[in-house]
């Protein structure tokens, strides 16, 4: 069974007298451990779809089921709990709290979970190591480069071991070299930690880092490509899952 099932999701907005339908009966299945990219012209509904899957927004019709839970039918209170336990969100601009250190920013989502202080510390250190920033734990955002700030944002998104991580143009604010480093990092987290990732991007090269590429166009979602996974890396994936 796929980890994420988006079933015939429709979302309409009114703009004055006009009605627009960024998502028109969109369906999508994402397997555990898959890395999916989503492209499309500006205003086609990429963020809308991402936010539906992140349970921040609700469809007008259709259902979204994640790991057996129909998130489109949960109450607001249960959704907030579901999000804290299951979702990581990587923003275009990292959205770090300026008065907190890298360590404290990464700790924030863990404060919503029923885990001990020692387990929190352990997870933060694992996340800092995963993004190669252990030596910057006590730095404030203003003391970090743009790429390092985004890596803190990524560590914060994965620290609670979410089932799903969504990224809305995670390289949109970065120069080409730093963008490539962030994409390589996302790919590594996907392959080594088996993180399931859905990334919105405007950059066709960035989209190719994902296993499958999709495009939104006039309310419809089409798959535009599939990156061949080398046999060796497929084997590593399998071992990780077994
Ligand atoms: N809360 C809202 N109320 C009214 N219209 C909205 C709302 N949110 C989004 N829209 C409209 O829905 C359409 C899709 O928006 P969305 O932000 O999902 O597009 P996008 O593909 O992510 O765009 P971009 O690439 O520019 O970020 C746009 O026309 C937008 O203006």
From TrEMBL:
InterPro entries: AAA+_ATPase, ABC_transporter-like_ATP-bd, ABC_transpr_LolD-like, MacB-like_ATP-bd, P-loop_NTPase
The family this protein is said to belong to: Belongs to the ABC transporter superfamily. Macrolide exporter (TC 3.A.1.122) family.
Alphabetic keyword roster: ATP-binding, Nucleotide-binding, Transport
One Pfam family per UniProt: ABC_tran
PANTHER family xrefs: ABC TRANSPORTER ATP-BINDING PROTEIN (PTHR24220:SF452), IMPORT ATP-BINDING PROTEIN (PTHR24220)
GO molecular function, a single term: ATP binding
Matches recorded under SUPFAM superfamilies: P-loop containing nucleoside triphosphate hydrolases
ABC transporter domain: residues covered: 4-239
Source organism superkingdom: Bacteria
A GO CC term attached to the entry: membrane protein complex
UniProt protein name: ABC transporter ATP-binding protein YtrE
């Amino acid at each position: 069974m796929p980890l994420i099932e988006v079933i015939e999701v429709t979302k309409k907005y009114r703009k004055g007298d006009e009605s627009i339908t960024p998502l028109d009966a969109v369906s999508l299945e994402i397997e555990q451990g898959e890395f999916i990219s989503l492209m499309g012209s500006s205003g086609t509904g990429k963020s809308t779809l991402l936010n539906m899957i992140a349970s921040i927004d609700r469809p007008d019709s259709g259902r979204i089921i994640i790991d057996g839970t129909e998130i489109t039918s949960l109450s607001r209170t249960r959704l907030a709990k579901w999000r804290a336990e299951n979702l990581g969100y990587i923003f275009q601009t990292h959205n770090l709290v300026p008065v907190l250190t890298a360590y404290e920013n990464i700790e924030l989502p863990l404060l919503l979970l029923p885990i001990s202080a020692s387990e929190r510390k352990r997870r933060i250190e694992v996340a800092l190591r995963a993004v190669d920033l252990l030596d910057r734990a006590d730095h404030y955002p203003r003391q970090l480069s743009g790429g390092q700030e985004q890596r803190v944002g990524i560590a914060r998104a994965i620290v609670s071991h979410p089932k799903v991580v969504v990224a809305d143009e995670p390289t949109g604010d970065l120069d080409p070299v730093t963008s490539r480093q962030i994409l390589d990092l996302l790919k590594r987290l996907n392959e080594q930690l088996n993180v399931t990732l859905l990334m919105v991007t405007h950059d066709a090269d960035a989209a190719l880092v994902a296993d499958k590429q999709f495009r939104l166009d006039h309310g419809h979602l089409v798959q535009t490509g599939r990156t061949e996974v080398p046999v060796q890396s497929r084997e590593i994936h399998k071992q990780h899952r077994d």
